[in-house]
Amino acid sequence: MVQSASTESPEGGKKIARPYGEGDGHFGPYGGRYVPETLVRALEELEEAYHTYLKDENFLAEYRRLLREYAGRPTPVTFVPRLSEAYGAPVYLKREDLNHTGAHKINHALGQALLAERLGKRRLVAETGAGQHGVATATVAARFGMEAVIFMGEEDMRRQAPNVARMRLLGAKVVPVTTGTRTLQDAVSEAIRYWVEHVEDTYYLLGSAVGPHPYPSLVRDFQRVIGEEARAQFLEMTGELPRGLVASVGGGSNAIGLFYAFLDDPVEIVGVEAGGLGISTGKHAASLTAGEVGVLHGAKSYILQDELGNVLPAHSISAGLDYPGVGPEHAYLKEIGRVRYEAVTDDEALEAFLDLTRLEGIIPALESAHAVAYAKRWAKEFPGPILVNLSGRGDKDLGHVFELLEARGVKFVDEGTQGDRG
């Protein structure tokens, strides 16, 4: 169902009209709620809490205080001069990497933990791919005195070992998922299965703008602060809006968080999917670029699937983008042509990772490096300025990046200095 909607940001931003409704959880034909009967009551309870507390000034004041005092908001917008010169157009970064825990995930984790508290749920269950959402969940569980159970694919645990250690140090139980591709898709399935079994006393702290209604809207509303801050900051810095926005898209939470405040503005917007080894190889995670409409994890959207409707495994060097589906709001924005979705390859992302690190002293998450990579491609034909959402920092990726670079013949030790310990 399509209808007019007008919503207020939980961060207190301006009122924004949208040409689609959220009352029934649909974005055009996408979204909805496709879940087992066991979860219907829990989702209805969450929907009621979402609509009640996001209009409650006491709730919103507490959320804003936590963003300010605990997460460290507002994060800055940073002009990157050397990268701009190398790429050929002015490039700015929205620095979500400077949040407490190192990524944008803390924004919705804090909001959802507050909802869980209001609902009387003392256990959080979550899935994680790159580990950033898992760390954010473990962090808020520690902050609120809650139990955290986090499902993570065994392959992702190998790639993101530092974040596994952080989650365990924070007191969370990290459950390895050994089924399927042992990545994010399988972690989501196991987290939902756990939630079905413990729904009475457990809150499912979903990590992206995916899943059954109301999660896509709820997560988006807790991430809107990114775009609302960025829009005001960019205007103050330059006196105008950026001409282009870029953000990486896996499930799509950081991207919709940035895009939402700009949807009514004359700004070109690009979501960047993981093109993996190349779309033609089938080894990618580009659901909007090469997927078909189907149902995955409780919502209708674009997913990677075969001709029989079986979900296909996704591939990306970035564990956070390694997911065969995408949030339904992105599917709708693609359909109405408001946002363009492109794919960049593993090699392009790795190259951009090194560009930003060596030219600006900023180590991006591999997820964010996909957005930087598209800015590099786009800047050759687009005058800019381009605003890139740097959704997370790359500390967690260093071990994996070294493996990837060594496999490509890149050495970091100057052979002429080997043995010099002085």
Q: How are the SSEs ordered, and which strands pair?
A:
Layout: E1 5-7, E2 16-18, E3 26-27, E4 30-31, H1 37-53, H2 57-71, E5 77-79, H3 81-87, E6 91-95, H4 105-118, E7 123-128, H5 132-144, E8 147-153, H6 154-159, H7 161-169, E9 173-177, H8 184-197, E10 202-204, H9 215-238, E11 244-248, H10 253-259, E12 268-276, H11 287-290, E13 292-296, E14 299-303, H12 328-335, E15 340-345, H13 346-360, H14 366-379, E16 386-390, H15 398-407
Helix pairs in contact: 2-4, 4-5, 4-9, 5-7, 9-10, 13-14
Structural notes for this entry:
Belongs to the TrpB family. The chain has 422 residues and is an alpha/beta fold. It folds into 2 domains: 26-72 and 105-215, Rossmann fold (3-Layer(aba) Sandwich), CATH 3.40.50; 77-101 and 224-408, Rossmann fold (3-Layer(aba) Sandwich). 42% of the residues lie in helices and 18% in strands. The protein contains 15 helices and 16 strands. It has helices at 37-53, 57-71, 81-87, 105-118, 132-144, 154-159, 161-169, 184-197, 215-238, 253-259, 287-290, 328-335, 346-360, 366-379, 398-407, and strands at 5-7, 16-18, 26-27, 30-31, 77-79, 91-95, 123-128, 147-153, 173-177, 202-204, 244-248, 268-276, 292-296, 299-303, 340-345, 386-390. The strands form 5 sheets. The chain has a 6-stranded mixed β-sheet, with helices on both faces. A 4-stranded parallel β-sheet has the order 9-8-7-10, sandwiched between helices. A hairpin with a 2-residue loop joins strand 3 and strand 4. Helix 5 runs parallel beside helix 7. The chain is globular and about 55 Å long. Mean pLDDT is 91; it is low at 1-7, 12-17 and 417-422.
